[in-house]
Structure formats: structure tokens, C-alpha cells
Amino acid sequence: MSNIPAELKYVTSHEWIRLEADGTVTIGITDFAQAQLGDVVFVELPEVGTEVEAEQDIAVVESVKAASDIYAPLAGKIIAVNDALVDAPEMANEDPYGNAWFFKMELANADDLNNLLDADAYAAACE
Amino acid sequence: MAKQTALYAKHLEANGKIVDFGGWDMPIHYGSQIQEHKAVREQAGMFDVSHMTIVDVRGPDATAYLQKLLANDVAKLKESGKALYSGMLNNEGGVIDDLIVYKMDGWYRTVVNCSTREKDLEWMSRQSKGFEVSLTERPELAMVAVQGPQAIERVKQVKPEAAELIDGLNIFQGKGKGEWFLARTGYTGEDGLEIMVPEAEVAAFWQQLLDAGVAPAGLGARDTLRLEAGMNLYGNDMDESISPLQAGMGWTIAWEPAERDFIGRAALEAEKAARAANPQQALKLVGLVLETRGVMRSHQKVVVEGIGEGEVTSGTFSPSLEYSIAMARVPVGTTDKCLVEMRGKLVPARVVKLPFVRNGKQQF
């Protein structure tokens, strides 16, 4: 069974979103996503400063099995990317909710957070 | 409802992630495909290959029948137990399947792919008309491939009564022991054994190997290992529309004796002449190495500047080399460089001779 932490928000394209104290969000891929992908071997991240739309493909995660696009769950600006993940992509399998975060964003509209799934709704979407 | 092998419960016990493979519920990995791959290259791993189809060929015309059915020539098999790799071709020279044939005592055992089982059996049966032979499928035999530098040692440890038999096996040779059949063959580029075992005994044997430290490995690792070893996968690297000459299987065609009229021979001879007359149009199978990030995948387009185009037939991330490798069908004139179209971009790749890895070592 996948691990779906209750304190995070989710989208059906299998990214998780964590709201930080300063109002920014941190984004990664879920345990379900990493298990479906299998061993992750490359990660490509967006450039810091990029303005993105919700559902825009902005990163790529490539496993032994397949390449998958990673989508911006919300509109906003990329303010940080996880270079350590690029150097050690296997972290996406080992620690998907911790060290393997992908990027951080400043949201264009904080209200957009209300459109995200909670853990129960995401668990239902993975059935 | 997919079929399950006699080891299905063992796969679940070991947390195998089960996928449908040619109508069988098989483990793709047990956690990490890369770790399973490395276990085989560095120590020993085992694969459940019970889904493969075993067909025994018996009867006074068995040799003559196989000499017609296969592009390679079973007359090359001098000693009992020796194995031969061959394509089984259609009349147009396309590959219906690739298989292994073992010479037994007065009969032959063939192992064909599971995904092609029905058409293979139908074809083999149809071609047997006029020959005094019997074809018997052996679904009651399970099969385990134990592969890696420590594989043979581990099997001898758990099966001491077979140690002497195993020590007597040359590479590409098998021998029976009661209902068991042990062969020094595999699909990984490492030394090891493929062992046919009565279904009722296979779970206990698997457990003994586990207890001896042999790592269970899934179909995912099997694919990356065979690709590193430069071994073809039916359906990817060749099929009924591809001849052995375009699939790196030229060495499996026994042209001599010239009077042996195997199925597909006339088409292959015509193709060989056409390739010689017009090499620009001919295709060959090569290895590709990607020197940048990313992973080559089957069906990606290959562009060879000034020469023409080709296609990636199998591509993956190589766990041993830690970059992407692929097999590709490209124009014969291709030398050392090409471009691969990946996710909308043309990316430079190096062209190398197959295989990539054998016995744990880089080969190019």
C-alpha cells in the first residue's frame, strides 16, 4: 500500500504539495508515483525564476521503465529546485516526501490551494 | 485471468510487483530492478522463467525436421546436451521466433518464447507434415535461471547430488538428471544455469536458493541484463517482418551445406544478394551509447547524417554502465556516430559493436 501523508495536498497527476509557513509551496512526486515508475535514473528540473501555469509540464523524471512529465500543480513562479536530486535521482524512490522534493514555488493565487486533493481524495484517485 | 507459474506464491512472499507478461502474472521486480541487476552481475540472481514454452521433438525424422524448420543447423550439435541458438523463419525470411534447441539422447528439446507460443506450436506442427516426428509440450516443467559469477557455486551448494553433473557441463551444454534438466545457458551475459524442474519441486528449490543468498530478480532486470549482453528480444529487435540479417543474427544462419533447404533460405539468399548489390539500402543492428543524460527507448528515430535513418529497437538505462544504451537498426554505412530523436530533440549517440557488457566487464 502506498504511503500518503495526511498533512500534504495532492493532484491526480501524482505530485504532492506542501504549504510552508512563509506561504510558498514545496512539490514532489508521491510514493505511488515512484512505485509505478520503478528505479528513477534521471531527473530534469525547471530553471529558477520560470513563471508557470497550472498543469504545465515543467520537469521530467526518467526511470528504467519510462520517461514521465512532471506538472506544475498550481500557477506561479519557480523559486528553488533540488539540485541534490539531480545528482542522486534514486532519492525519488527512497524518500519521495523528504529529500526528494523537486521544486519550490511562489503561488500566483493562494486561493488555488483549495483546488487540491486531500490525502483521502488522493488515495481514492489511486484506487 | 492470467496464468501463474508454480512460483507465484514465492513472488508474492518476496514482494514481487506482478505484471501481465504474455498472459502470465510475472514479477517485474521485487523492489529495485537496478539492485537485482547488480546482484546478477556481481554475485548471483535467479529468475522464474517457467512461462517459457518447452517443446520436445522426438521420432526418427527429428533431425531432418529441425534441419528444415531452423535457420541454424542441428547437425552442428555433436555431443549430447549441446545447445544451439536459432531463428525459426517464415518463407519470406522473417523471424517467427528465436529459440534454443538442445540435443538429447536421440531426440531434441526446444525452448521458445511465451509470447509467441501459439503461433510457434501451430507453425511447428504444420511444418512437421511428411516427417515422422512427435511434438510434445512440457508445461509440467518449471524453469529457473540462476545467473551470475557465483550462480554455479550456489546451485551446487543446494543441490550437491548434481555437483558432478554441473562440473561436467561446458558452456551452452545441458544434461538431464531424472526429471531435472540443468543447462549452462542464460540470457544475462553471465555464467550460470537454466534449470528445468518438475513443478511440484520448484518452490522448495527456489527457497533453498534464497536461503543460500541468491537474489530473486524480475523481468525488468532480465531485460537490462540481456540488453547489456547484446542479446535480442523477440518482438523488439526482430519479428516476422525482420530478417536475421537485419537483426544481428547472421551468425545463426547455417549457409553450409548449401543443399540444406531450410524454411526461408531462398528469401535470405535473395536478400543477401540484394544487400551486396545495394548496401545503401541495407540495415544492420548496432549498439548505441548515449553520452548525455536521458534514456533511449524502443521506436525512437535514429538519424545518420548523410546516410539515412534507422530506429531504436530496444533502449534502456544500463545499471552496469550508468548511462543509456540501446540496440538500433541502422543503415549498413553507419560508422561511429548518429542522432537519436528523444522527446522532440535530436541527441548525439555513439555507435558501438555489441555486446556492451559480458561477465561483468565493459566490451566496447
TrEMBL record, chain A:
Family annotation (SUPFAM superfamilies): Single hybrid motif
Q: What are the Lipoyl-binding domain coordinates in residue numbering? A: 24-106
Example GO CC term: the record gives:
cytosol
Instruction: Give the InterPro entries listed for this entry.
Output: 2-oxoA_DH_lipoyl-BS, Biotin_lipoyl, GCV_H, GCV_H/Fam206, GCV_H_sub, Single_hybrid_motif
Q: Cofactors per UniProt? A: (R)-lipoate
The biological processes this protein is annotated with in GO are:
glycine decarboxylation via glycine cleavage system; protein lipoylation
Q: Does the keyword Ribonucleoprotein apply?
A: no
Cofactor info, note text: Binds 1 lipoyl cofactor covalently.
Q: CDD domains, from UniProt?
A: GCS_H
The answer to keyword Glycoprotein applying to this record is no
N6-lipoyllysine: residues carrying this PTM: 65
Q: Record's Pfam families?
A: GCV_H (PF01597)
Query: Any idea which UniProt keywords this protein has?
Result: Lipoyl
Q: How does it assemble?
A: The glycine cleavage system is composed of four proteins: P, T, L and H.
The family assignment reads:
Belongs to the GcvH family.
Q: What does this protein do?
A: The glycine cleavage system catalyzes the degradation of glycine. The H protein shuttles the methylamine group of glycine from the P protein to the T protein.
Q: What name appears for this protein in its UniProt entry?
A: Glycine cleavage system H protein
Its lineage opens with: Bacteria, Pseudomonadati, Pseudomonadota, Gammaproteobacteria, Oceanospirillales
Q: Which gene encodes it?
A: gcvH
